[in-house]
From TrEMBL:
Cleavable signal peptide: 1-19
Keyword Glycoprotein: yes
GO CC terms of this entry: cell surface; fungal-type cell wall; plasma membrane
Protein name: GPI-anchored cell wall organization protein Ecm33
Pfam families, per the entry: Ecm33 (PF12454)
Residue ranges, annotated region (Disordered): 343-373
UniProt keywords, alphabetically: Cell wall, Glycoprotein, Secreted, Signal
Entry's localization field: Secreted, Cell wall
One BP term from GO: fungal-type cell wall organization
SUPFAM superfamilies documented for this protein: L domain-like (SSF52058)
Biased composition (Low complexity): 353-370
Main location: secreted
Gene3D superfamilies from the UniProt entry: Receptor L-domain (3.80.20.20)
Species the sequence originates in: Aulographum hederae CBS 113979
C-alpha cells in the first residue's frame, strides 16, 4: 500500500473536522450528540443556536472561542447549558424564554460582546468561576437569579437589570458607562453597589433598598432615584455635575447627602418623599439650568452657594421654611440669581408641584413670604399664579 493511500484518509478526516469548526452560517444544536461533536474545535468560527425542541442538557465542551453568537430562544425544555472551556464569545449571548433552564455553567468565560438574558424564571444561580469581565452590554430581565456573582463586568456600554424578583444585590465594577444604567423592580431589599463608577450618561434606580455611589462624579444625562419604599439614604459624596436630578416618591427616604454637587444642567426635582422631614442641604450647589422643584415635608432648604437658576423655582413644604423663603425671595428677578417664575410655600397643608395649597406662617393665616411673598396679592390669585408655575414646570 502506498504512503499516499495511508495519508489521504488522515488528510480527509482533518479537512472534515476543520470544516465542522468553520462555517459562515449558524449551526443548530438539536441534542447532546450535536454538542459533543464540537469537542474537536478549540475555536468555532460562526454562530451556534439551540433548537427550540431540544430537551437534552447541552454541554459544549473543549471549545475555547465562539466567534459569533450563542443563542437559545424559546427552548422551553432545556434544563442545563454549559461550556467547560469557553473563554470568549465574539458575538451575543442570548437566552430568551428558556423556561426550565436551571443550570448555567461557563467557568472560564471572561469576554462576550453582549449578554441578553430574558424570561428565565427557573435560573436562580450561575457558575462563572473566572468572572465575566468584558461585555459592551448587559441585559438581565425577568429571571429567577438570586445573585450576580461572576458578572463583575468592568467595561460596559449599557447595563439593565430589571424585574428579577429574587435578586437582592446588583453590582457593577465599571468606572464608566457610555449608555444607560437601569436597575428596576428587583428584590424588595435590592442593594445597588457601583463602587468604581465615576461617569455615566443616564441612570435610573427604581425600587431599590440601598444605593452606594462613592466614586460617582458626573452623570451627563439625568440621574433618577425614584419609587422606592425601603430606600432610607442616598449618599453620592463626590457627585459634582448632572444633566438632571430627580429624587421622587421614595416613601422611606430620610437623608440625601450630595455635598459636592455644584451643577444641574437640567431639571432638579425632589418631590413626594414622605419621610424626608429634616434638612435639604446642598452646600456646594451653584447652577440649575432648568427648573428647581422641591416639595415635601422637609424643615429647611440650604442652598448657600446658589448663584444661577434659569428655570422656574418652586419650593413647597409642610414644614416651617418661611425664613428660607424669605432669603430666596431676596434674590429673584430677571437679572438676579432666580431668573424664572418664583414660588415658595411654607407650612402648606398639601405641598405639591401644582402649587395650589396656601402657605401658613402660624395657624391658618396666609404667609405672603411663604407664597412668593414679593407679590402682594390675594391667596386666590396666588393659587392661580402657582398653577401657572406648575404648568411651566411640567413642560420643562
Amino acid at each position: 500500500m502506498s504512503l499516499f493511500k495511508l495519508v489521504l484518509p488522515v488528510l480527509a478526516a482533518v479537512g472534515t473536522a476543520h470544516a465542522a469548526c468553520s462555517i459562515s452560517a449558524t449551526t443548530t444544536i438539536q441534542n447532546a450528540g450535536d454538542a459533543s461533536a464540537m469537542a474537536t474545535c478549540s475555536t468555532f468560527s460562526g454562530s451556534i443556536a439551540i433548537a427550540t425542541g431540544t430537551t437534552d442538557a447541552i454541554a459544549i465542551n473543549n471549545v475555547q472561542t465562539i466567534t459569533g453568537d450563542l443563542v437559545a430562544r424559546n427552548v422551553t425544555r432545556m434544563s442545563s447549558l454549559s461550556a467547560d472551556s469557553l473563554q470568549r464569545i465574539g458575538g451575543d449571548f442570548i437566552l430568551d424564554d428558556v423556561q426550565v433552564l436551571g443550570e448555567l455553567s461557563f467557568p472560564q468565560l471572561g469576554s462576550v460582546r453582549t449578554i441578553q438574558w430574558t424570561a428565565l424564571p427557573n435560573l436562580q444561580s450561575i457558575s462563572f468561576t473566572s468572572g465575566l469581565r468584558n461585555s459592551t452590554s448587559l441585559l438581565i430581565d425577568n429571571t429567577g437569579l438570586q445573585s450576580m456573582d461572576g458578572l463583575s463586568v468592568s467595561g460596559v456600554d449599557s447595563f439593565t437589570v430589571s424585574n428579577n424578583g429574587a435578586l437582592q444585590n446588583v453590582s457593577l465594577a465599571a468606572e464608566s458607562v457610555d449608555g444607560i444604567i437601569e436597575v428596576n423592580a428587583n428584590g424588595d431589599s435590592a442593594q445597588v453597589t457601583f463602587p468604581n463608577l465615576v461617569w455615566a450618561v443616564n441612570m435610573t434606580l427604581r425600587n431599590v433598598a440601598t444605593v452606594e455611589l462613592p466614586a460617582l462624579e458626573v452623570v451627563n444625562g439625568t440621574l433618577y432615584i425614584v419609587e422606592s419604599t425601603t430606600l432610607q439614604s442616598i449618599n453620592a459624596r463626590n457627585l459634582t455635575t448632572t444633566g438632571g436630578l430627580d429624587i421622587t416618591d421614595n416613601s422611606a427616604l430620610a437623608n440625601i447627602s450630595m455635598p459636592s454637587l455644584r451643577t444641574v444642567n437640567g431639571g432638579f426635582k425632589i418631590q413626594d418623599n414622605e419621610d424626608l422631614t429634616g434638612d435639604l442641604d446642598f452646600p456646594s450647589m451653584r447652577t440649575v439650568i432648568g427648573a428647581l422643584d422641591f416639595y415635601g415635608n422637609f424643615s429647611s432648604v440650604g442652598l448657600p452657594e446658589l448663584a444661577d437658576v434659569r428655570g422656574a423655582f418652586n419650593i413647597q413644604s409642610s414644614g416651617d421654611i418661611q425664613d428660607d423663603c424669605g432669603r430666596f425671595d431676596e434674590v429673584t428677578g430677571r437679572n438676579n440669581v432666580i431668573k424664572g417664575p418664583f414660588a415658595c410655600l411654607s407650612r402648606t397643608d398639601n405641598p405639591q408641584g401644582e402649587g395650589t395649597a396656601s402657605g401658613t406662617s402660624s395657624g391658618s393665616q396666609p404667609s405672603k413670604t411663604g407664597a412668593a411673598g414679593h407679590l402682594d396679592v390675594s391667596s386666590s390669585a396666588m393659587m392661580g399664579f402657582t398653577g401657572v408655575i406648575a404648568a411651566m414646570l411640567g413642560l420643562l
